[in-house]
Amino acid sequence: MISSCPNRCRAKDALGGLAQCCLVDEPVNAERQVVVGVALLRDGQVLAALRRPSANTPGGWEFPGGKVEPGESEEEAVVRELREELGVEVAVGEPLGAQPMGERYLLKVYTGRVLSGRLVLHEHDEIRWLSPDNLYDVDWLAADRPFLGPLRRVILSTAGDPSRFGDK
Question: Most exposed: 17, 38, 71, 153, by fewest CB within 10 Å?
Fold first, then answer.
């Protein structure tokens, strides 16, 4: 939604969503509910998850995650949400930024890696591991699109440092 762009730049990315310039460093409105997402990284690829038809925004690809509960840190919410949604334990990495979602929510996306467990789809229909060159091969939800440029740069800049992804 272009009207929620804190920079009022009206820029769009290649898929018609907000461009990365619309990412914000601080919440636009302190009353917004924080929603966290995690860009799970492995072997120079990122996990994309397809939402089930019964979800609020069905059929779109997203970074898995969810709402931060009262008394919970953002990092704790990432760990809880990935355990609930995908059945894995994760290490939370660097923040990629924040993106307003309508008037009520603020999406914050972090990098992360799987520490243990096997991916099991509890709330998604499908997952895909995407390379930096294939990031735009799926139909990402509009709120997640601004994170693709910064994420691509993170993946490419750490290609020679597998410890950043937990690669073996």
Answer: 71
